Amino acid sequence: MKNSHFIHLLKNQFNLSEDGEKMLEPRIKKIFMPKGTPLLRPREICRYIYFLESGFLRLYKENGEQQTTDFGCEGHFCAAVESLLNQSESEEGIICETDVKLYALHYYDLMMLEELSIEFLLLSKNLLSYYLLRLNQEKKVYLKGNATEKFKYVCKHYPGLVAHIKNKDMASYLGITQQSFSRMLKENLTKG
Predict the structure, then answer these.
(1) Which residues pair with 71 in a beta bridge?
(2) What average pLDDT does the segment 125-149 reach?
(3) Which is more confidently placed, 187 or 110?
(4) pTM (2 decimals)?
(5) Which residues touch 174 (CB under 8 Å, ≥6 apart)?
(6) Start and end of every Cyclic nucleotide-binding domain (predicted)?
């Protein structure tokens, strides 16, 4: 199966059935994208939900300059969620920070699958729950934590990301200056 990694995850984490697999398989695109490739630009409509098999994505907004809003890494789902769910223009863009291998499911294919089988309604609900729980977990860290705690959270939940992201993009995500991030990075490296 060409989408076996993605299908395997859906079977194990979201209880996808054999019938569901047969319905889903032809609708998934396996994509290889080089570093620097935009998957979505601000003001475009997000048409796909992505699952990353390998590599890193960065979500950003443009407010005069780019402001990093989130990341995607191996084993994560990624989309400009508000745009995807409303099929409206996105405030966010999505760019490949490394070469990536991902699977893409078109929004309208997912809607069609939901109409064909209750299994896909449940799958959509479970994917949305997964995203909301992750978002809530991050919100707790970002409301209560300082930049160092946020950075440690990123390092724990996005292993290897820091080596592939520009300092200015990580600083933007943490809400600090590049200089402050450079100092924080040096301090964390010297502590081990």
Answers:
(1) 58
(2) 86
(3) 110
(4) 0.87
(5) 147, 150, 151, 154, 181
(6) 33-107
